[in-house]
Amino acid sequence: MSARSIVIIRAAGERTESACIEAVSRQARGWLGVEVVRERPFWKALSKSIGIACRAETRWAVCVDADVLVRNGCLERAIVEASQCRHGFFMLNFRVLDRLMGGEVSGGLHLYSGKLLRQALELLPQVESALRPENALCAKMAERGYPTVRSKYLVGLHDFEQYYRDIYRKMFVKANKMGALLPYLFARCNQEKNRIEHRVALAGLIDGIAAGAAGRRASLNVAYYREMADRVLSEAGIAERGPLTAFDATRVDEVVDSFVPDELYRAHRSMLAADGEVCWFGQDAPWTAKFVRRVRKALQRRLEALERRLGGSA
Question: Are 45 and 37 in contact (CB under 8 A)?
Fold first, then answer.
């Protein structure tokens, strides 16, 4: 199954980039390939990733964010789950153990159905200005009858061992796009304030809220945040982390297997890791998807028949 699959790592200078590439490459031997995409802002990386997968004519395209440290065997497990899924999905979304959020959240590893990627490529211009382009693209595909399926499988660690600048940026953006979670994020950062990561995260959260109140939208360009993050680190007397020169991959499984969520996370779990298997992004029940697909196929057949008639009469 995996021999007809491709892995695309989406990188933006994360501290864990090399460790991510090494672990993914080790698991993807015998696949169609492992590609690394470094385009910025994110919608360009998304566009290039889908383009690569289209040209590869892959059955499954697995996109892994470079801030994820994957657990052993997770790629093959993802392919098996996709092959056994009873839903005609566009994206199968997995879970990660998130350092800043304090538990499991959706994201980090996204598996796409290769046969639907050309449709997605056509829709990309409509979502490139969205704050969450990938989420917006999935919503567009749901309108066409292809939902996102949420897996409960935890593929690895997210936002562990990251640069403090990146932590600041991520929380700044979260302040703009996760309004409903702001009370939880504040509580999480305050509870973990003895950790440098969460002190930096709190600064990013506060600055992001202030920017939103002033009408400034969070940029998806990584470089936009460098000066602000450096100011925060300097004022707090925090030295930036150096490159991650070595990482023991066995630690990922150890951390995942030993993790126990605290009371704060458990109280907000339904908001952080939704249990619903199929996500329609506000669309109607599954029968609507089947109807939409039937209509699209019928129209396509009529167009093809018309083209043949016109071609025959020429």
Answer: yes
Per-residue pLDDT at 84? 95
Question: Model-level pTM?
Answer: 0.88
* 19, 20, 26, 32 alpha-carbon torsion, rounded to 10°: -150
- List, as one string, the DSSP characters of the chain: -GGGEEEEEE-SS-TTHHHHHHHHHHHTTTSSEEEEE--SSHHHHHHHHHHHHHHHT-SEEEEEETTEEEPTTHHHHHHHHHHH--S--SEEEEEEEETTTTEEEEEEEEEEEGGGHHHHHHHGGGTTTSSSHHHHHHHHHHHTT--EEEEEEEEEEESTT--HHHHHHHHHHHHHH-GGGHHHHHHHHHHTTTSHHHHHHHHHHHHHHHHHHTTPPPP--GGGGHHHHHHHHHHHTPPPP-------THHHHHHHHH----HHHHHHHHHHS---SEE-TT---HHHHHHHHHHHHHHHHHHHHHHHHHHHH-
Report whether 43 contacts 127 (CB < 8 A): yes
User: 90: which 2 tokens?
Assistant: 């566009």
User: In angstroms, how far is CA 185 from the centroid of its own chain?
Assistant: 19
List the structure tokens of 278: 């199929």
Number of neighbours of residue 83 by Cβ within 10 angstroms: 11
Cβ contacts of residue 17 below 8 Å, gap of 6+?
9, 11, 66
Model confidence pLDDT, tens digit, residues 133-182 = 999 999 999 999 999 999 999 999 999 999 999 999 999 999 988 888 99
Which tokens belong to 225? 């945040």
Amino acid at 35: E
Q: Please, are residues 140 and 122 in contact by the beta-carbon 8 Å criterion?
A: no
Altogether, the residues listed in the chain come to a count of 314
pLDDT per residue over 219-250, tens digit each? 877 888 999 999 999 999 999 999 999 899 99
Q: What is the pLDDT of residue 73?
A: 96
* pLDDT beneath 70: ranges in the chain: 1, 283-297, 312-314
